[in-house]
Amino acid sequence: MAKSLRQTVRVIFLVLLMGLLSGAYALADSAPLELAPGVTYSSFDVPTGAGVAVAHMVTVDLTQPGVSLNLLYPGVVGRALPLSTMVADQGAIAGVNADFFNISATQPGITPTNAPVGPMILAGKVLKAAVPTVHRFGPSLPSGAAVTDVVGVGIDGVVRIGRLTLVGTISTPQGNYTLRGLNQYGIAQGGIALFNSDWGSVSRKRSICGDDSKRENPCSTNTYEVIVKDGKVAAVAEEPGAGAIPEDTFVLVGREAGADQLRALKIGDPVTVEYQMLSSLNVPFDFAVGCQPLIRDGKAVPGLNATTYAIRSAIGISQDGKTVYLIALDRNKGTMTYAEIAKMLLSVGAYTGANLDGGGSSTLVIREPGVGGEIVVKNIAPTDAQRPIPNGIGVFYTAP
């Protein structure tokens, strides 16, 4: 009997060891928790070069009736809230944090805006464009990634990773100028950016700070702001202001050459702005948020960092774009490199995938099934505080 028991234990050990070596990950929970038809939560152990990490994952089957993905955000670009608050307020059943953002001051006396780095689209409406690369926050971009990279859902319901680049023209009596920013906390040198009601009430001054070589460089001393109401110049100022922008108003902020162009405008001059986000894909995005691609066409992006360990959040997408894996590492139980997070995404079934903001921003939230629907943060201890963030990827369910 004892010999038989020892043989059984040995077989179990060998099976577990082979699983670890093959890249298969052992579930830490006894069984996945169903949040809605086609939506489950699970957690699993991941062997890494720094030990064993615990990953928390929500798997979403978008072929199920009533299941969808959409943007979680505080209602304006320049604001941050805990992810659990956005999940509760917007009626989601789960969510993960998304883009990196302007979390810290880069110049004395300039308050961070909390605005995200990359583009953002909700219900087909462009909320913001990407900041210049030098102004981004977060670790080094993965190989081949750009600040214009996004993950989102197309108007056909398929989840994809693509790029969104702002293209726009400002038309004035003095001439036409190129629009180089939309609701951004950073503007390229010599550029003009537009701010509208989607920006919120936070100061616009951060947008003219730093330059094309370093985001920490001093704010520009040659700036100009034009307030356009009902299509005509209503007010001007030498420096960017603050405060909520009405729906019938937009604000143009220029620096250097852009400021000089705006100074030519007079009160009452007609001004129109036309812009769009040029997509790298054939199908327009209905919802999109910034990310950094790690997997393309079923393979990890070449040259991914394999030495820097951090708490990570990520998204994986199946080949048909209909199954999504939202993942956040446990903040108290392990870290991973870019290379390891890519390997993990491939292992769970992703064909494409991307890195999201990590560290203290890394958050995965679920709404417990059943009466009451308590909202629980799964990757931090109950006593740990959530970091307010500017956006997330939400999972929604409406019963057919």
Write up what this structure looks like.
12% of the residues lie in helices and 35% in strands. The chain has 400 residues and is mainly beta. The strands form four sheets. It has an eight-stranded antiparallel β-sheet, covered by helices on one side. Strands 6, 7, 8, 9, 10, 15 and 16 form a seven-stranded antiparallel β-sheet that branches. A five-stranded antiparallel β-sheet has the order 4-24-5-22-23. It is globular.
Number of helices: 4
The number of distinct β-strands equals 24
Low-pLDDT segments: 1-23
* Euclidean distance between termini CA atoms: 55 Å
Structural class: mainly beta
Q: Which strand order do you get reading across the main beta sheet?
A: 1-2-3-20-19-21-17-18
Gyration radius, to the nearest Å? 23 Å
Helix content: 10-25%
For the biggest sheet, the summary is: 8 strands, antiparallel
SSE succession:
HEEEEHEEEEEEEEEEHEEEEEEHEEEE
Query: What is the 3D form?
Result: globular
Arithmetic mean pLDDT: 93
Kindly estimate the percentage of residues that lie in beta strands according to DSSP: 35-45%
